[in-house]
Structure formats: structure tokens, C-alpha cells
Specification:
It is globular, with a radius of gyration of 15 Å. The longest helix is centred in the last third of the chain and has 15 residues. With about 120 residues, the protein is mostly helical. The chain has 4 helices and 3 strands; from the N terminus they run αβββααα. It has a single domain, classed as 3-Layer(aba) Sandwich (UDP-N-acetylmuramoyl-L-alanine:D-glutamate ligase), CATH 3.40.1190.20. A hairpin with a 5-residue loop joins strand 1 and strand 2.
Length: about 120
């Protein structure tokens, strides 16, 4: 399936969800963020301040998304957390990790959540 425009991506996302009888489909869209299809369409923009290296960004997104779901996050919450993690890694050079403190701080900053990480 080819997808060249935002509309094409939405069509592909919905078709994948229906064809394979999936609850949810998450499509990453590089510098445009990601889109979650869970009965609705949630476009989650990227919040990376600067992009130095995209190495490992996809792996980070998949890992954090899965971990967040396993920890009880909704599909949309998991996507937003994973998106924040991906934004952190692309701001570093080479294959890198995201600390709990970095992720909490970034997520809270993006979504205007008060409080600080006591990690």
C-alpha cells in the first residue's frame, strides 16, 4: 500500500485496522509525528526541538509504546509517551537511551502537566 499524503496515510491506517481486525494501528510519520487509529484518528505532532540523529528512534517508539501499554496506559497515552521518547532520542547523536527523568520531564513539558520528577 502506497501512502504519499496525509489522506493516503489515514486510508491505509484504517484499512490495516479493518483488514486485520486490529483494535489499534500506530503509524509513525517521521518529522510529522505519528497517527493513532483506535476507532478515532489521533494525530500526534512531533515535539523534537532539534534533530541530530534518527538512529534508534523507531525502536525507542515501539519499546516505549509497548511498555506504556503494559503498564496500563490507554492507546493514546502510550502513543504520546512514545512520541515524547522518540523526540528525546533524535536530539542525541548516535544510538542513545532515554532516562525515566528525561521522559517524565519532556512529557510533562509537552502536555503542560505540573510537578517534577523525583526520579
Amino acid at each position: 500500500m502506497d501512502a504519499n499524503s496525509r489522506e493516503d496515510i489515514d486510508i491505509v491506517g484504517q484499512k490495516l485496522k479493518e483488514q486485520y481486525k486490529l483494535d489499534t494501528v500506530l503509524i509513525t510519520r517521521s518529522e510529522e509525528g505519528m497517527t493513532l487509529y483506535d476507532g478515532g484518528i489521533h494525530n500526534i505532532p512531533t515535539y523534537a526541538k532539534e534533530v541530530y540523529d534518527v538512529t534508534g528512534a523507531g525502536d525507542t517508539v515501539i519499546s516505549v509504546f509497548t511498555l506504556a501499554r503494559a503498564a496500563g496506559a490507554t492507546w493514546e497515552e502510550a502513543a504520546k509517551i512514545a512520541n515524547a521518547a522518540g523526540g528525546i532520542v533524535v536530539g542525541k547523536i548516535g544510538t542513545s537511551t532515554v532516562s525515566e527523568k528525561e521522559l517524565i520531564s519532556t512529557y510533562n513539558s509537552i502536555y503542560n502537566i505540573g510537578g517534577t520528577c523525583k526520579c
